[in-house]
Protein kinase domain-containing protein (Staphylotrichum tortipilum), 163 residues
Amino acid sequence: MEQFSEEWEWVSALPITVNPPLKTAGKYSALTNLYQFALVMTCLITQVYTSAKPLQGTIKIPNPLNMSDPRKVVSYGAHILHPRYDRVDPALRQLVAECLCDEVMERPPLDRLLVYINASLQGRANSWVGEDSAAEVQVWVARHTGMPPAVPVAPVPAHWVHL
């Protein structure tokens, strides 16, 4: 329910009509920021840009009332749960898909994300030793985020006469 939802199709508080209460439109919070963060993570996982109007899918999220019976909800990140992306941690993909839930209140709370992030970083602290040197990382970052190469200037043909 971000900016592409039907909720943005009408103006609230028109003088003659009574509009239903807004669920998302114009209500920004940490949970709406999670959606944007999850879009970036989706690009990193799939290695392609997301579509302008993402596709809906159904995912299962934890049910706080009955943890053994997850709830089915609409998410714009269901596609990243496909086995095609099994090279990426399944728990991370699940959390990213949950951050893309249509209903803001179905997105995971920040404390749950922090628990996952801290546990992942602790478990991997020594696994990166010897992988990439700081110089290699700097070269990679410069290549992928630096300025584009200069545009070559076309040579002026010799037969042109300049007055």
